[in-house]
Design a protein that fits this description.
The protein is an alpha+beta fold. It is about 45% helix and about 15% strand. A hairpin with a 5-residue loop joins strand 15 (about 510-515) and strand 16. It is elongated, with a radius of gyration of 41 Å. Residues about 1-70 and about 480-505 have low confidence and may be disordered.
């Protein structure tokens, strides 16, 4: 509608909508919303007078039963009789305000399309690639510490990044102007990295009402006239930040990622089976068993089949069928099928063998042409005692200048006693990444976009990766950055002085040459080789949103962040924001270590030790079985009791076979006596002798011819 009351109602609705649609990625998530609603009900229950009525006491009791709210200090101050605090809180939450609403290009009415025409917003940024890149933030070359004179701007390209591109798009939509500042101590002529890389320093600079803001170049009350100031970077929309600042809707949802060092995996006994998964090997074994049983059924029952001689002994028939199936798979079968069903089974087995060997050989070639890598931990859950990858020696490096990491780890430790790790403290994220690279810590964690950007720029581009990785040490430098291992109170050196400008082992040892092409190493550089690369492992966790932070106040002018909300949503709907994110956010899977291409892979004994062990086990098993058979024969020949046992077992087996024959209607010849067996043996021997004599006579006749 066009009535003033309706317009005001819409404005209040928009404010309520912004309040209720806080990002779901907050650390307290829905808890924060329920606490805030509880606060509303409590304050509504408060009487207009400040006498402690029964309603007041019931409201206070209701509040005490709930967790601490987002506005804990203000609420407690109001309930303790602090009239000014209660009045300010009521004004912030319940006083209707009239705020002009910017009309986006989608709005039917364009009355307020130029609402911010000519208005200048001052944005405090800080060095955090890929969100913000500041050229010469130390102000050693360009000067202008803190960028008060605007020597670094979007036009000359001396300030860039994801947030900068987003703000420039918002600038075009609102027809406003944007000036960029960054934290730099006013007492210094050059800027310290502890300031221009810190989100905490940027938020301190934004709080112009506090004395801390005046400590920076361009800080203080003059920085933020009419609340036209904000902070841009990787500022997380967290509970603590929401207490002190207004935030836009998140322009990017992301989370923490775990970083570990990958190295060449040690070969295992069963490494020869790695080209195929355990499930595939299980299927192969099942196929062998099925074919073996099929051969027992098709070739074992009958009178002229390949396994007919074992038809009266089911166990022997099963062993011979499995043995035939296995030999057929290896291409060394010693039998030929007689039945049609057996022939079909063997043709199927041969086809299976062809596919299996081709697949395994192809995967084996690919497997051997690449060196497999592994990490000590695969995910954040590996730091829980209940998981398979847990180890008491695993440690996490925590960057002290980024308290969000410590807060998250404390939250995990408080909520789950099984979460255990050794803590190594580094000053910055770069220190912790170097600690992991030098194996001083098992892993570290931080924002995924920042981590991937640092891996690409500080490690992979400087050859601190792969089997050819390493770094150059300048022995002339004496200062050694260090961190403190709080668990043992021992100072642990993270990295020696690293000269990243000198790349590669050859360039490190020989940075320059004279006219005779002789190596000159004035600084006595030494190359320290490090095997392995830093990689991100596991999935994103502790999801959160990044937003633009504004000053928090009950003044209606402080609600300009809602206009930036509209602009961000508009850019999201057009797909422009996604294009900006795709342009700036690096893909961790695309990180390639220069010079990491490997030549021919030379197999060592440890690479094929599993095959030798498998073969040795087969030989040992065959030898043990052979020795067992020899021992049994020796016992039968030398001990009458063993011979008698053998005869009794053979008689029982013969009786069982005769019983089966009778059940099938087959006549059973009576067993010969000892004398009959002796005569039968003589007859058989004479027949064999006659055959041999005939064979010799045939040979002599051929020789005579």
């Amino acid at each position: 509608g066009q009535a003033p009351n309706c317009i005001q109602c819409c404005q209040v609705h928009n404010m309520r909508r912004d309040l209720l649609h806080m990002p779901s990625s907050l650390s307290l998530r829905s808890t924060a919303l329920s606490q805030l609603l509880s606060l509303l009900f409590v304050l509504l229950a408060l009487p207009r007078t400040h006498a402690r009525t029964p309603d007041y006491h019931s409201a206070r009791k209701t509040l005490l039963l709930r967790p601490r709210s987002l506005l804990d200090s203000e609420v407690q101050g109001a309930l303790k009789g602090n009239i000014s605090a209660e009045h300010a809180l009521r004004k912030l939450l319940f006083t209707p305000v009239s705020v002009p609403i910017w009309d986006s290009p989608y709005s039917p009415s364009q009355t307020n399309a130029d609402l911010f025409l000519g208005v200048t917003f001052r944005v405090i940024v800080y060095q955090v690639p890929p969100f913000v890149n500041i050229e010469d933030p130390e102000a050693a070359v360009l000067g202008d510490p803190g960028n008060v004179k605007q020597k670094r701007n979007y036009v000359n390209g001396k300030i860039s990044g994801l947030v900068i591109d987003l703000l420039e798009q918002i600038k075009t939509l609102l027809n406003c102007e944007i000036e960029y500042y960054y934290p730099c101590r006013a007492s210094d002529t050059t800027c310290s990295s502890s300031d221009f890389t810190s989100s905490t320093a940027a938020l301190q600079m934004l709080a112009v009402d506090s004395p801390a803001s005046s400590l920076f170049h361009g800080g203080g009350a003059d920085l933020c006239p009419n609340y036209n100031c904000l902070v841009g970077g990787n500022v997380k929309i967290s509970e603590e930040n929401l207490r002190n600042f207004f935030f836009t809707q998140p322009f990017l949802q992301n989370g923490f990622v775990l970083v570990a060092r990958s190295g060449e995996a040690e070969p295992r006994i069963m490494s020869w089976a790695d080209p195929m998964t355990s499930f595939v090997w299980t299927v192969v074994i099942i196929e062998l068993i099925v074919v073996g049983l099929g051969l027992c059924f098709t070739e074992g029952y009958g009178f002229i089949n390949s396994l007919s001689e074992f038809r009266w002994s089911p166990l022997r028939l099963l062993v011979e069928g499995m043995y035939w199936s296995l030999l057929q798979l290896f291409g060394a079968a010693t039998r030929s099928p007689v039945t049609v069903a057996g022939k079909i089974l063997l043709v199927t087995q041969l086809f299976f063998k062809l596919l299996l060997i081709s697949t395994y050989t192809g995967n084996l070639n690919s497997f051997l042409s690449t060196i497999p890598t592994s990490t000590k931990v695969q995910r954040i859950e590996d730091f829980f005692r209940t998981t398979k990858g847990f180890s008491k020696s695993n440690s996490i490096c925590v960057p002290v200048e980024n308290p969000s990491v410590q807060q998250y780890l404390n939250l995990l430790s408080d909520n789950n006693p099984d979460f255990q790790f050794q803590q190594v403290n580094g000053t910055t994220v770069d220190d912790c990444l170097m600690a992991v690279y030098l194996n001083k810590a098992t892993a570290t964690l931080y924002d995924q976009p920042v981590v991937v950007s640092k891996l690409a720029s500080s490690f992979y581009q400087n050859s601190l990766c792969g089997n050819v990785g390493g770094y150059c040490v300048d022995n002339n430098l004496t200062s050694v950055p260090a961190v403190t291992n709080l668990s043992s109170n021992v100072t642990v050196s993270i990295n020696p002085p690293v000269t990243l400008e000198v790349l590669g082992q050859d360039s490190c040892i020989c940075p320059e040459r004279d006219a005779g092409y002789n190596c000159i190493n004035k600084n006595n550089y030494q190359f320290v080789s490090v095997q392995g690369s830093l990689v991100t492992v596991g999935e994103l966790f502790n999801n959160f949103g990044y937003g633009l932070a504004f000053r928090r106040s009950s003044d209606a002018q402080a609600l300009k962040y809602t206009t930036f909300n509209q602009a961000i949503l508009y850019l999201q709907e057009l797909g422009i924001l996604q294009d900006i994110i795709s342009q700036w956010l690096p893909d961790g899977s695309q990180l390639v270590c220069p010079g990491s291409g490997q030549g021919a892979v030379t197999l060592q004994l440890k690479n094929v030790s599993g095959l030798f062990l498998f073969t040795a086990c087969g030989i040992l098993l065959g030898t043990m079985v052979g020795l067992g058979e020899l021992f049994v024969k020796f016992c039968i020949a030398c001990f009458y009791c063993c011979k008698e046992l053998k005869q009794r077992v053979e008689a029982e087996i013969q009786d069982y076979q005769d019983m089966i024959k009778r059940e099938q209607g087959i006549s059973v010849e009576p067993e010969l006596s000892e004398h009959g067996k002796f005569v039968q043996n003589i007859v058989d021997t004479l027949d064999e002798t006659k055959d041999k004599i005939s064979e010799i006579e045939s040979i002599l006749r051929r020789f005579a011819k």
